[in-house]
Amino acid sequence: MTVEQNVLQQHSQKHQQTLLNQLREVTGTTDVQLLQQALQVSNGDLAEAVAFLTEKNAKVPQQDEATYYQTTQVGNDRYISVGSQADTNVIDLTGDDKDDLQRAIALSLEESSRAFRETGITDEEQAISRVLEASIAENKASLKRTHTEVWSDSPNPHDRKRMENCPVGLKNVGNTCWFSAVIQSLFNLLEFQRLVLHYSPPARVQDLPRNQKEHRNLPFMQELRNLFSLMVGSKRKYVDPSRAVEILKDAFKSSESQQQDVSEFTHKLLDWLEDAFQMKAEEDREGEKPKNPMVELFYGRFQAVGVLEGKKFENTEMFGQYPLQVNGFKDLHECLEAAMIEGEIESLHSSAENSAKSGQEHWFTELPPVLTFELSRFEFNQALGRPEKIHNKLEFPSMLYMDRYMDRNREITRIKREEIRRLKEQLTLLQQRLERYLSYGSGPKRFPLADVLQYAMEFASSKPVCTSPLEDIDTSAPPGGTTGQLLPALSTAEQGPSCTLPEGLSPAPTQAPSTQQRVPIHKPFTHSRLPPDLPMHPAPRHITEEELRVLEGCLHRWRSEVENDTHDLQGSISRIHRTIELMYSDKSMMQVPFRLHAVLVHEGQANAGHYWAYIYDPHQQRWMKYNDISVTKSSWEELVRDSFGGYRNASAYCLMYINDKKPFLIEEEFDKETGQMLSGLDKLPSDLKAYVKEDNGLFDKEIEEWDTLQARKAQQEKLALAAATAAAETTTSHQPMSTEPSPPDSWGPQQDPEYMEQPSPTDDSKHLQEDTERAISKAAAEQQEERSPEGLLTAAIKVEYTRLLRFAQEDTAPENDYRLQHVIVYFIHNQAPKKILERTLLMQFADRNLSFDERCKSIMKVARGKLDLVKPEEVNMEEYEMWHQDYRNFRETTIFLMIGLELFQKKCFVEALMYLIYSYQYNRELLVKGLYRGHNDELIGHYRRECLLKLNENAAGMFESGEEPEVCNGLSIMNELVVPCIPLLLVHDTEKDLLAVEDMRNRWCSYLGQEMEPNLQEKLTDFLPKLLDCSTEIKSFHDPPKLPTYSTLELVERYGRVMASLSRVPADGR
């Protein structure tokens, strides 16, 4: 076959697959054989094929079995639906006006066919184009977004700098998390990585067919090489794949947008890569059939063995991704078993040629080194007319042995399957018998039989409290009383000692009734008086010792028999389960091992969601989580939680296994001369090495410019600070009193701590001045002998320090935080150096405002003189300023928290959010330095989380109202407040925050299955990707609110009040 014939054959095959895809999309029919029959009957006319399927659905609801089991011909497109379990019913499109509908469909299909003939582009590829174009548009639109959104890069390049040996992430350029998940999974296949990096385009490009598709592959391959090279050697934490996406977008023309499906994208990606490598392979061949490395890496073959009305057939077919149904199965092996067998296969094992039964089996003849399973977690709800996601749990192993599905093990597997079938029949019978023991009874409520017998034995052996509960009622009351005489009085012997009336309840003598008076009837359920001695538990009224002995013996024996039977049944069931589990565990059936390489996870619903990948690093022997720009260490436990399904809206959508006996797939490359392992830029060919070096140079330049800018800003701030200090020194006598004295002239540019500078000299400053003067007075009273200013200063400092130390050592409630009252308490809590404490106290006593009397004035002068004598090497002023800056940050964080909690209690959630967000962020920064640097982060985190949940609830309520202003207001709250905050909840990966995010997402995802106006559906579709597609990278945000100034007394009072009024301090979260 010539090259031209080969190209034409491939084109014909893909055109046939295009027609099948169009027909599947229009009619909703998922069965490949039925679609092929429709095309054969209509001779390729799509309009007639649609009419054939719609008429078939109306006249013959059940599909023709002979057609269903007719296998495809050799050479059909490899993207066949292998072993599909999908519903074969055809969606009824006839409606009331069948002719008009069919004409519209025919026109649409004719237009699609004409577009394919003119451009060589299929509808499936145009669908890919739509999402790619939407991704690029989203990326461009992100440049115009306000600072309230989270999609822009951090302006600080140090935040975007790659950690040493850390994998590189991929930026989500707008609904492209599917691109990131697939590309990362393939990139971490080192053999695939090498193939892409060392790809060289054909030398005779001009001789290739001038088809738009052909010219697309080479530019795309070059951009993919560039992207891979940056992922290998970039200094950036993450790289932008926009240029690769742009190449794909430019290959197609459309204007619609949707979020792309991972499996569909992987299909097309491998198809494009195969085309690109096929060009090169055909150029390099020397008289023999060219080998395409993409085909050898990702494609395998299976044998279809079947019986059609007694006639056997066999056919070999090629496959890429292998589709598996999830619904109805508990693990991967069950899915595979169901996919490998279709129909009734008993006749496959017999020689009867006249059997009417039909069925087929699939046996793998050749497995690809990279085996990919596509888990079908979406199904079309015909009643609602929309796809829905399947959230069922599906387990899969980290090591998968494929021996039982290989053609060479066909006979032994059939024997084992038959044995398993027989065991499962026994298992069903045993489970039914066990169920009769565990759910005994004939009514709606059933109980274990052993418990029933135990209850009966307990009842029989119970001692009666009295003969009848009703006899506890006062039977001596006169007939004319309110209760009357119910029963004749019993003798003492009959009543027994336990039936005597309690003291104080004996009847009082009353007048005898007349003979005409009617005796009232006692109604125990309507009278207000209750019997005084109701039995504590039911008990038999009359039972003899002999009866009790016989009954207890029988019940004991029966209960033991039941327990033994139950135990035997449970043991038999466990043994059968174990036998089934070990059926394929012998060494002969463990020769084809495939190790789990990557799991692609989808979170959300069918209409919207977010993708990420778990990829195994064999060299570090750990799992890594690739979530767009975020690449973090993970674990098998986290993978199981997010991938198996059934727990949240997250579940595995694609499983990638690699042949464990082919280590070249993940082996590193070594230098042929030195034997050293290649890493970084050494892995790249010369052209890509130069490309990465150029990009790294640009990033280095960006960092250098940023550092220069920050240094210039710091210098300007230092000069401005020095100027402000000098100006303050010239007007010292005109300054109001402050809580800390102005520094001596020798202190240079250092400034008083801002938290000490309160505007009112009669409030905060006066309070601190009174504390200082009180310490001086107490010291003077204690120092009767030493009254020199220097001695008094030393004694006063000691008095003040002792007072503050006592505060620091007290165990107080959150509303009584002494750290807010004085900086020294904060310093003591956090073990500040002694020199810092001494200088801070000296500054307090050196305040110029201490001039009330001559004693205070003399002490102030001594304190200032001591400050002048302190040498620079004795006290590190940078460290001193750092401690005071931490205290300023602590007070600022307290104000954020206080205002946030006050607003939260007033239900002003929109206003409260930013205060709580920033209090949490600043508080975490403080707690990094020490446990007592900040406040209780669980408390702040609780109210931050609750505030977001309240806002989400309010916004959802506005959306549910359906009113346009309310809907817009609700979505505005979500877009501007809630969505930008979600990464803040995800970044630390705490269980309570993750559950809160899940609650918020579930609330909005629940609307997908509800009927609503088209405009609401459009707004929801536009909004959901933003809610679900949030990474943990914090890029830009609201500016913090401007804080008012509070004196120490006011801050302490208000903070104490709001903390005392909290309904609860969360110890266990929501």
From TrEMBL:
Residues 493-518, 720-791 are annotated as: Disordered. One of its GO terms (biological process) is proteolysis. It comes from the Eukaryota. Residues 413-440 form a coiled coil. It catalyses: Thiol-dependent hydrolysis of ester, thioester, amide, peptide and isopeptide bonds formed by the C-terminal Gly of ubiquitin (a 76-residue protein attached to proteins as an intracellular targeting signal). GO terms for cellular component: cytosol; nucleus. It is an enzyme of class 3 (hydrolase). Residues 763-776 have a biased composition (Basic and acidic residues). GO terms for molecular function: cysteine-type deubiquitinase activity. CDD domains: Peptidase_C19I, UBA_UBP25, USP25_C. Its main location: cytoplasm. Residues 720-732 have a biased composition (Low complexity). Its EC number is 3.4.19.12. Residues 168-660 form the USP domain. PROSITE patterns: UIM, USP_1, USP_2, USP_3. Belongs to the peptidase C19 family. The muscle-specific isoform (USP25m) may have a role in the regulation of muscular differentiation and function. This is Ubiquitin carboxyl-terminal hydrolase 25. It comes from Salvelinus namaycush.
